[in-house]
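sorry for the late reply, my laptop died twice this morning and i had to redo everyting from scratch. anyway the thing you sent over, i finally got around to it. pasting the sequence first so we're on the same page, its 279 residues, then the predicted structure underneath. double check i copied it right bc i was rushing
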Amino acid sequence: MRMLVIACNGQLGVDVTRYFAKSFEVIAYRDVELDITDEKKISAAFEKDRPDVVVNCAAITNVDGCEADPELAFAVNAKGAGVVARAAQSVGATLVHISTDYVFDGTASKPYTEADPVCPKSVYGRSKLEGELEVLKACEKFYILRTAWLYGHAGNNFVKTMLKIGAEKGEVGVVTDQVGNPTSSMELVRIIEAVLKSGRFGIYHATCEGVCSWNAFAREIFRLAKMEVSVRDITSEQLMRPASRPAYSVLSKEKLLENCGYRPAQWQAAIAEYFTVQE
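ok and here's the structure:
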C-alpha cells in the first residue's frame, strides 16, 4: 500500500510521514515541492506515484494572516483542496483531508457534532469550509477530519509560543474566554490510522478529549516544562486580534468512537507525552 503525504515538512506532515512508514510505502512531498494550487503538477504526481491513500497536510493556518490575505487563503485552503480531491479521485485513492473547528461560529453550549450547522466567522474558517465542500464534491473515498488547537514538535504552535515568551519575559497574558480541545499532532496521527482502518468514509471530529481554556492550557504547559511563569487572565476583547475566534470550540468525538472504535487521549495526557517524547 502506498501513501502520498503532501506538506510532509509541516507540523502534522512530519509525524504522519514518520508514523505511517511502518505500515505503508510513504511518498512524501514538502510543500515547496508540490504546490496544491497547481493542478497540472498535482495530477502528474498522482499519475506517477499512484497512491492508495493521500494525506493532505497542506494549508494556510495563520488565522490572522488569512484575514489579511483572503486570496491566498482561498487559493490554498479551498481551491487547493479541490485540486487534491480531484487528483485522488482520478487514481482511485482514499483522501484524508484536514479541516478545522473554525467552520463553527463558537456560540454553542455543548460539543459540536458533525451534523451541526456550520457558520464560520473568519476568512480562515470560510476558506476551510469551502475546502470541505470541494472534497465532498470531487472525491468518493474521503475522510474529512476537523481538528483544533493543534501542536507538535515541528512547525509553529501555541506550545512553542508559550515556552518562548515564558523564557524571555517570565510572564504572559492568555485568554480565559475561549475553550476547546488542545490536540497533539501525534494523537491526530493515531486518529488518522483509526479512520483508515475503519473503512467508514465521511466527516469526523478529530481532537483530544477534555476541555480547557487557552489560559488553563498555558498553565499546564508551564507546569510540565517546570517553568516559573506568571500567567495573567485576559479576555479576547483585550487581546484585539484581527480575526474572530470561536469562543466555544469543543468537538464531539462520539461518531469517531461509534464508527471507528477509537477514543482519543485526554488533552492532559497528550501534552504530557509531548514533553516526554524527543523531537
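The chain is about 45% helix and 20% strand.
thats about all i looked at so far, will dig more tmrw
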